[in-house]
Hints:
The complex is a heterodimer of chains A (about 110) and B (about 120).
Chain A: E1 3-7, E2 10-14, E3 19-26, E4 32-38, E5 44-50, E6 56-58, E7 64-68, E8 73-78, E9 87-95, E10 98-101, E11 105-110
Parallel strand pairs in A: 2-11
Antiparallel strand pairs in A: 1-3, 3-8, 4-5, 4-9, 6-7, 7-8, 9-10, 9-11
Chain B: E1 5-7, E2 10-13, E3 19-24, E4 31-38, E5 42-50, E6 53-56, E7 65-71, E8 74-79, E9 88-95, E10 107-108, E11 112-116
Parallel strand pairs in B: 2-11
Antiparallel strand pairs in B: 1-3, 3-8, 4-5, 4-9, 5-6, 7-8, 9-10, 9-11
Amino acid sequence: AQSVTQLGSHVSVSEGALVLLRCNYSSSVPPYLFWYVQYPNQGLQLLLKYTTGATLVKGINGFEAEFKKSETSFHLTKPSAHMSDAAEYFCAVSFGNQFYFGTGTSLTVIP
Amino acid sequence: DAGVIQSPRHEVTEMGQEVTLRCKPISGHDYLFWYRQTMMRGLELLIYFNNNVPIDDSGMPEDRFSAKMPNASFSTLKIQPSEPRDSAVYFCASSLLRTQGKGGELFFGEGSRLTVL
């Protein structure tokens, strides 16, 4: 069975601090991995994705994520948080035409 | 290019009324998904279509919910009769067949916020 676990439903960081949002998955086959961001009253927007190749993936707005097969993880990071990063973040995995979303992590940025 | 278009953006209705939500996927996309988002349950897949054909509707909560896709550019999600517990944000998303299985992502609409009084 495939599943996605996001550790921490709420994360708070100070402006300028490192952002680390955790995502672990379980899968019997190599997955494709995604991070989406959702701003208030908006739909989900793709931040970045891993399909094949380089395990460190760079996305929009300065975010990046690293696929670690041995740890079954795909954590999202950003070196320096900005106020505009405050949003809900979802990790997702896909197998063929099936997508599985995590429960989301709400990021608060403290000025 | 236009993204996934949903209407209405907001709907307030009374219990027992029929609700119809609409979705126009991205042109050329041949997968269409309906999701529901609530605080309690998060993001739930309701149903998805491939080439206008429903493939998996196991997420549809009950018979009051129905979805159709009469053509490649239009889909509806209908709730009849509506109940307060149906209050949620309903998202439509689309994707492209030839990228499926190769890491193709979902493209989401802005959502339809439904409030049933």
